[in-house]
Amino acid sequence: MAKEQAEYVDLIILNKISLVNEKQLEKALDYVHDLYPGVPIIKTASGNIHKDAILGIDPKLVNYKENLDYDNHESHHEHADSVQAFGFTDSNNIYSQQAIDDLLEKISAWGFIRIKGIIKTDTGYKLLNTVFSRTTWQDLPDYNKETRIAFMSKNALAYQQKVAELFKQTILR
């Protein structure tokens, strides 16, 4: 059943990691990476996770190599499917939803596993959620802050500058 669910998983949270030793944690991480290759993992000791990490709109908060709130565990174990992330914020511009859809189509072959953000579009604020190549938009009528978007993949940083250039082309005003 876990293998069947794998296609829908876009974030994994390992909670209560302080209850296991380093070897047990590494074994659990290996198992999770085998089931869900490339999916970002957040490790926490107490279940305290910043909301932007869950929403995926602050890429600095989604990095499974670092612990968010557990200082006693230091892991030097590297996984071949590590995830890199970068993001943009903008409080001045309005973006074309259609142009963003076109951009997502253009970069779909670049291996992004998740793209998520809150974007001020020509029809209002929208929550963008792209998992692999499946994209959804949701209206956010009560949101009125900045545009924020995060891009995650195994080699996201290699595409950061090009994505920034392409994303600027989606600005309406």
From TrEMBL:
GO terms under cellular component: cytoplasm
InterPro entries to which the protein is assigned, alphabetical: P-loop_NTPase, Zinc-reg_GTPase_activator
Domain of life: Bacteria
Name of this protein: CobW C-terminal domain-containing protein
Species assigned in the record: candidate division WS6 bacterium OLB21
Signal sequence extent: none
